[in-house]
Recover the amino acids of this structure.
């Protein structure tokens, strides 16, 4: 049988540090990878090239965050947070104000964005846990918090542009 790195349950970070695969950092990196992979699926359902490019931008941001968390060089995330916030503001200006809770599932595209939001929130919770054990750049937590909000409102924008009525829960 051929031997591969990692066969003994260890992984190597970008800074060459070897740690066990059940270390919290690998949980965080796995959650970010899952989010990134699902966004890769999601973008295939978005017809508008400009809006699809927004998902590609987010995927690149997640790779940068993952690289820093994996021991890569430190990075300032202020600019990518600002760019994400511009997209969030665009969404908010172009959708109606929410008056009720919304059920996921009005369309395949918005459903995949809603699921991506859930994956993002899980990754954010794990990053917060990691931050308690090892101080990380606080901008990473800010980015993930803003990203989950963006994904929620982006899904609403996609529904509006597609002419799909949201599934509201009336109070």
């Amino acid at each position: 049988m051929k031997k591969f790195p990692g066969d003994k349950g260890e992984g190597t970070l970008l800074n060459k540090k070897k740690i066990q695969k059940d270390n919290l950092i690998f949980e965080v990196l796995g959650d970010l990878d899952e989010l990134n992979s699902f966004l890769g699926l999601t973008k295939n359902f978005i017809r508008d090239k400009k809006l699809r490019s927004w998902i590609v931008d987010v995927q690149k941001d997640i790779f940068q965050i993952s690289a820093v968390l994996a021991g890569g060089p430190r990075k300032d995330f202020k600019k990518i947070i600002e760019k994400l916030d511009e997209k969030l503001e665009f969404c908010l200006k172009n959708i109606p104000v929410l008056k009720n809770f919304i059920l996921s599932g009005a369309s395949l595209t918005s459903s995949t964005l809603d699921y991506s939001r859930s994956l993002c929130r899980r990754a954010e919770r794990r990053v917060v846990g990691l931050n308690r054990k090892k101080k990380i750049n606080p901008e990473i937590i800010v980015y993930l918090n803003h990203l989950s909000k963006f994904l929620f409102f982006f899904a609403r924008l996609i529904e509006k542009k597609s002419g799909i009525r949201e599934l509201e829960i009336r109070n």
Summary: The longest strand covers residues 10-12.
